[in-house]
Write a structure and sequence with these properties.
Alpha-Beta Plaits, SPOR-like_sf, 7 strands, SPOR domain-containing protein, elongated, SPOR-like_dom, peptidoglycan binding, 41% strand, alpha+beta
Length: 168
C-alpha cells in the first residue's frame, strides 16, 4: 500500500508579475553543473526556471599546517602541494594560515590527516562555519495546491526533488 504524504509548503514572497498562489522549488544548488542539469529538466517539463541567490552556512573541518609570515606561507604551500594538492592559504592578521584541505565530512578529514601524518606532515583540525553561495531554482505559477501537486509529481518523475512553496 502506498501512503501519500502531504507536500512540504515553505513560505515565499510573491513577485509582482506572478498571479499564482504556489510555485515549485526545484532545489538549492551549490554546484553549478547540478543547477544546469536541473534547469534543463525544468525546461523539458515546459517551464521557465527562475533563479534566486541564497546562502547556506556549512560546518567544515580544515586541516591547518600552521601560521606563517606571508612569504614563508607561500613557500610552505608549494612544499606541501605534492602531499595535499588542494592546499590553500587564508590570511590571519599579519600572518597566513596554510591548510592541507577543508572537509564537510569529519571522518574523511581525519583519514587524510592520518595519511599526511604517515608522510611526515602534522596538521591540526580547525572547525569553521563557511557561508556558501546557493542558487535557488523555482518554477511554475499555480493557482491552487492541486495544480502544484500535479506539476510536482511530473517533476519528481523526471528526477527533481521538488518542494511546493506557498506565496504570501
Amino acid at each position: 500500500m502506498q501512503v501519500k504524504t502531504k507536500p512540504e509548503i515553505v513560505p515565499s514572497t510573491a513577485s509582482p508579475a506572478s498571479s499564482g498562489k504556489y510555485v515549485l522549488q526545484g532545489g538549492a544548488f551549490l554546484v553549478h553543473e547540478n543547477l544546469v542539469e536541473a534547469e534543463a529538466t525544468v525546461r523539458e517539463l515546459g517551464f521557465e526556471p527562475r533563479l534566486e541567490a541564497g546562502q547556506k552556512t556549512e560546518k567544515m573541518t580544515r586541516l591547518r599546517v600552521g601560521l606563517y609570515a606571508p612569504a614563508e606561507a607561500r613557500a610552505k604551500l608549494q612544499e606541501i602541494k605534492g602531499l595535499a594538492p588542494d592546499a590553500f592559504l587564508v590570511r590571519a592578521g599579519d600572518q597566513m594560515g596554510v591548510y592541507a584541505g577543508s572537509y564537510y565530512d569529519l571522518d574523511k578529514s581525519r583519514r587524510f590527516a592520518d595519511h599526511l601524518y604517515q608522510q611526515g606532515l602534522r596538521v591540526e583540525e580547525e572547525y569553521v562555519e563557511i557561508p556558501l553561495p546557493l542558487t535557488i531554482l523555482t518554477f511554475g505559477d499555480f493557482p491552487d495546491m492541486a495544480a502544484a501537486r500535479q506539476a510536482a509529481e511530473r517533476a519528481r518523475a523526471k528526477g527533481l526533488d521538488v518542494l511546493i512553496v506557498q506565496r504570501h
